[in-house]
Amino acid sequence: GLVKTRTSVGEYVWGIVCVSLAAQIGTAPLVMYSFGTFSTYFLITNLLVIPIMFLVVCLSMMIWAVGWFEMPRILTVKLLTFLTDFENACLERIVSLPDSVINMEFDSPLQVWAVYMVILSVWLWIKEKRSARLVHGLIGLAAVEMLLTVQNFAV
Known about the structure:
79% helix, mainly alpha
C-alpha cells in the first residue's frame, strides 16, 4: 500500500518489486551465511527474470501439449532456447556490473538469528508503530554481538 499505481503495468511492476524486496529481506541473512555474498542488483535482475521465467514455464508446459507434433515442438523449443539464452546473457551482463556482489560473511548462526531478530523487530515497529519493538530488537542484537565478542576473546 505504499505506492498507488494507475495502470496495470505499474501495478505489475510494483508487485514484482514488493515480492523481490520481501524475498531478499527474508533470504539475505541465510545467503550471506551460506555463500558469503549479497547481490546488489537483485531488483533489476528480478524485474527481468520473473517475466522471462513465467514465459519459460508456460512454454515448457506447452511442450507437453504439442510435443507429439514436430513443427510446433521445434518452434517451442527454439523459443525456449532463445529466452533462456537471452536471460543468461542479461544475467551475465548484470553480474559484470561494478559492485554487483558484495562479500558479507556471517561467521556464526547466532549472527543470522540476530539479523532475523532485527528484521522482525523493524517489521513489528512499522506494523504496531511502537518504538519499544525496535528497541527490543536492537538490545537483542547488541546482546548477541557481545556474546560473540566474548567468545572470540575466549579462544
